[in-house]
Amino acid sequence: MNAPVRTCVGCGRRDRQSNLLRVQFDADARLQIVAMAGRGRSAYVHPDASCRSRLRKSRLLAKSLRRAITDDHKTQVALAHEAHTARLQTAPLGGLTKAGA
Ligand SMILES: [Zn+2]
Fold it and tell me: How far is the CA of 50 from the centre of ligand 1 (A)?
């Protein structure tokens, strides 16, 4: 098996893409967590609170997306990430919570 591997823009560790959330700009140039790849570059982040908080200081987001990232963008990602991970805890998606279930 050769699963795609991506770098988390929070902690900077590499992991299987299926273990990470995808971050992309939407049509209104707001950063969102998306399930499927849209147009443009994606960044990836673990669905962990620790990686969410690291996003604030990380330059990896700008590097992955090849765009200037403002504090507003980081707030957008943090809010989307928080909403997404809260949902995962109540209705886990396949692949994210296989261990120890
Ligand atoms: Zn991470």
Answer: 7
- Residue 66: partners with Cβ closer than 8 Å, 6 or more residues away: 41
Q: So what's the pLDDT on residue 98? A: 46
Amino acid identity, residue 19?
N
34 located within any domain: yes
Q: Is residue 98 part of a domain?
A: no
CA 37–ligand 1 middle distance (angstroms): 19
Question: How much distance in Å is there from the Cα of 54 to the middle of ligand 1?
Answer: 8
Candidates 71, 73, 75, 94; CA nearest to 83 is 75
Distance (angstroms) between ligand 1 centre and the Cα of 27 equals 26
Q: What is the pTM of this model?
A: 0.82
